[in-house]
Fold:
Amino acid sequence: MPVGWPEVYVLRHGQTEWNAVGRMQGGQDSALTGEGRAQAVRQGRILAGCDLNGFEAWCSPQGRAIATAAVAVVGRVAHVRTDDRLREIGVGEWEGRLRREIPELAGAEDADGVGLQGYDLAPGGEGLAALEARCRDFLRDRSTPMVIVTHGVTSRVLRLLLTGRPLSEIDRIGGGQGVVYHLAGGVQRVLDQAALSGPVSRAR
Structure:
């Protein structure tokens, strides 16, 4: 991890109504489902077991991330601020479409991140290189340990940068909702429900 980048906890927002049916969101938004709210509660419990003294909290300005932060982070860090650079990757003409109807994303499942480089093919979309540039810009502005609440693809790119890995590994950095990623010293650890009763769970 580049010198000067701080310790970070990264959360993806909880499941949304569009997530549940496989609909592409990008710059659009939909409400958290009951499962999504439960995932945010689990993330909050995980963070409650972490020493967040001196941490800042940053959140995407999109509604689903703000709703997750309200459950998982508020009350655990003094202030939650938003930054537009943490929004989800823009997917252009794919916004609102069902994932299964997009051949370029065949096999790109949220759970395991297979085929996510297909996001570069979205007509009118932002592209992964542009997303990486704004994520890097965000991190360069930070020197204090942070909790970040963001989105599926943006989370992956932030964590690639924090571990010094290339965009070509976006399918292997890990994903999922209801977990918390801890990054320090270039090492990623994923905290899940098992972390509530002991030390950090499994590494990826």
Q: What stands out?
A: The longest helix spans residues 34-48.
